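Input record (one chain):
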Amino acid sequence: MLSRLTRPRAVAVCALPVVGLLATAAFAPLPFSLTQPGMTANVLGENEGTPVITISGAPTRDTSGQLRMTTIEATNPDTDVFLGDVLDAWFATDRAVMPRDAVYPSGQSVKEIEQHNTAQMKESQDAATEAALNHLDLADQDIKVTLKLADVGGPSAGLLFSLGVIDKLDGDGSGGDLTGGRTIAGTGTIDANGEVGAVGGVALKTQAARRDGATVFLVPKAECSDAKSELPKGLRLIPVTTLKGAVNALTALESGKGSVPSC
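The corresponding structure, as predicted from the sequence alone:
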């Protein structure tokens, strides 16, 4: 036990390493990325003058409404982030601090990361096409789907790609649009079986969606709480776990028949 006379000195001595650590943290780069709401793109329309979805080998339909995939923007993987940057972003509702390894693969160069994200996007597009054609029982048909989206990487647009293919080929299945003429946004990975997976950055993506006119947001069910944390006014959340569930929710929303899930 420290005596009353020696305790202040002991506390002061112990505090020196803490002060040193804080001083080091203030001036040393930290392993974080700063993120904010990014661009959105209507997969039923064009991106940089090129249709996002092109289908051959089957008749397509004209669509109304929009299906907007959403993104976040992050500091470059080689950008230094300091304590002051983190503190500023920590208290902002339109920015977030994420571990760099959660945004970018660790131990890779900028070029390798870009190649990785491009490969993930290609895999996502292939899975999205297969899931959509499986859903429509068209997997054995000679249908070619081309998906193009410039300057976007990663797998999180998979769900919206699948919904876009379904809307262009079949709509709501009864002659109407899957969107019901609305601007619908969302996020979520997808596999060939139509399973929807979580992505991250959902609270920022909802802000990007509302900024660009969406009134409905499809969110992986596991990320409902994140989506609700900074939910913009006027944006309705619909949780999904499968492509079939997403289609059923949208058709129920359009027709007013059946239940529409909520977070």
